[in-house]
Design brief:
The complex is a heterodimer. Chain A is an alpha/beta fold. Chain A has helices at 2-8, 10-23, 37-45, 71-81, 104-109, 120-129, 146-158, 173-182, 195-201, 207-212, 224-240, 259-268, 299-302, 318-323, 354-361, and strands at 30-36, 56-63, 86-90, 114-116, 134-141, 164-170, 190-193, 217-219, 245-247, 269-271, 274-277, 281-284, 288-290. In chain A, the strands form four sheets. Chain A has a five-stranded parallel beta sheet. Chain A has a four-stranded parallel beta sheet with strand order 4-3-5-6, sandwiched between helices. Chain A has a two-stranded antiparallel ribbon with strand order 10-13. Classes of the chains: A alpha/beta, B alpha+beta.
């Protein structure tokens, strides 16, 4: 695996770690947030924190789309699925997310038809194959999946499909980052920017973080060396007193994103005035709904959606975990009442949730162990 | 759902230029390449796929690294491949 070695060379990792350590100013603490759940996964899986000095803390951000869906939206989806002749469809990740009266799997046991699909295009196909049914796609995800929903709606219109609609829960990453920056709970020094979201939106939308908040942002890839390299780039900016947006993942992320994808989103969807995020509360202009011109594909207009707000279970501290205020293991129910098998909170449901990632890969001893690095790097 | 999975473009579907057959870890399925119209991939090239849509072109080294990453995460990738196997995009 010559190719992979390029991204996992242990010697390179150690060299980067030494350069990162050399940039730490004595007595200063650094808090860097990795926004994306995929990065959280890599960090825990490879024990990357063990490579870092004690003065650098990695804080896990809200970039797990399943984790931020509030319970009320799960209840709304189940209500939609309970309407006559409705087939509800969604991604597999959603099936186990708990609502106030169970998850989709539980609803199906009570008689609804909620099908798992790989792609919104599969949902469209189900609609075409079942003209006497009303097929609703529960759309979730950040800008990574929003273009797929948009393209599917465009296709449905072009093909004249009238029994397909979208229950739109797409969220946008920038307002969530801004909400975290504005939160008094947490002082951050910089951001490891999300990789896949940025293939769509590009790097420019992060410029306000550097300009208005004076925090550096480095868009990062998903390999262990990508993340260490990004941390090095952030630390170098902090050391030199710069705050800029840099692109470590330029081999995949174009600076201007994917204009075709952005056009498709803009054509079919518009920003909601506000949207509730699990744990983060209501955030202005942080989610998408179908545009008026596509009202005939908007499940929220075609059906009566109760829109009831449901408080999270008292024991669940996903909100604090999503904001980075608590580490997963600091939650009261982590690993005891809440496990991947019996999740109470969303952060334990999705494999990209910080709690699930830590549960699967974390060590019981939470001290860093530089002498016993667990990273699975292959030496060249 | 959130995983970007690399696939090698095998061929385009006749009369449906926005659909292509790709190979993902030995699973051959149809995906939509309509988001790459500015720079369409050619057969033999690699793309990063999200929920049935190619979002970006990648090179072979990136594809190999991404596959290794995905195979390492276990169940989540298995679930994604299972879902892909059941996918019948047209």
């Amino acid at each position: 695996m010559r190719f992979v070695d390029e991204f996992r060379d242990a010697d390179k990792a150690h060299a980067l770690a030494a350069r990162i350590a050399a940039l730490c100013e004595p007595g200063r603490q650094y808090k860097l947030m990795e926004v994306c759940g995929g990065h959280t996964h890599t960090i825990y899986k490879h024990g990357l924190e063990d490579y870092l000095p004690e003065s650098i803390t990695l804080v896990h951000g809200p970039g797990c789309p399943v984790c931020v869906i509030p319970m009320g939206r799960v209840d709304d989806a189940i209500h939609l699925a309970s309407q006559p002749d409705v087939i509800m469809t969604s991604f597999g990740d959603m099936m186990r997310v708990p609502g106030s009266n169970g998850a989709f799997f539980d609803a199906n046991a009570r008689g609804t038809t909620i099908k798992m699909v790989y792609s919104p295009l599969d949902s469209l196909k189900i609609a075409k194959a079942n003209p006497d049914k009303r097929v609703v796609f529960m759309a979730i995800g950040f800008e990574t999946t929003a273009p797929s929903t948009a393209m599917t709606v465009l296709r449905a219109r072009a093909q004249g499909v009238t029994n397909f609609s979208v229950f739109c829960n797409h969220v946008t990453i920038i307002p969530a980052i801004k909400a975290i920056l504005d939160s008094p709970d947490l002082r951050l020094d910089g951001f490891i920017g999300p990789g896949h979201v940025s293939t769509v939106i590009g790097c420019r939308p992060y410029e306000f973080i550097a300009r208005s908040y004076g925090k550096p942002v480095v868009v990062a890839g998903f390999e262990p060396l990508d993340i260490l390299q990004s941390i090095y780039m952030l630390m170098l900016q902090l050391h030199e007193g710069r705050s800029e947006v840099e692109n470590q993942y330029s081999r995949v992320v174009p600076w201007d994103g994917n204009p075709v994808a952005l056009r498709a989103i803009g054509e079919t969807m518009e920003l909601r005035p506000f949207f509730e995020w699990r744990g983060l509360g209501f955030i202005s202009h942080s989610a998408l709904k179908m545009r008026g011109a596509y009202a005939d594909f908007d499940a929220e207009l075609l059906f009566d959606v109760p829109g009831v707000r449901v408080a999270d279970p008292k024991a669940c501290q996903c909100g604090e975990v999503l904001k980075g205020v608590l580490k997963p293991w600091e939650c009261k129910v982590f690993g005891t009442a809440c496990t991947p098998e019996t999740p109470i909170g969303t952060c334990m449901v999705s494999p990209e949730g910080a709690c699930a990632a830590y549960y699967n890969y974390g060590r019981l001893n939470r001290q860093r162990v530089p002498e016993a690095i667990s990273i699975e790097l292959s030496r060249p | 759902m959130c995983l970007g999975i690399p696939g090698e473009v095998i061929e385009f579907l006749p009369e449906q230029p926005d659909l292509a057959r790709v190979d993902v870890s030995g699973v051959r399925r149809v995906i939509n390449v309509g988001l790459l119209t500015d720079e369409p991939p050619k057969p033999g090239e690699w793309v990063l796929i999200h929920v049935g849509f190619a979002l970006s072109k990648i090179d072979e080294a990136e594809a190999a690294a991404a596959l290794e990453f995905l195979e390492g995460i276990g169940q989540a990738y298995e679930d994604e491949l299972t879902a892909l196997r059941e996918s019948r995009i047209e």
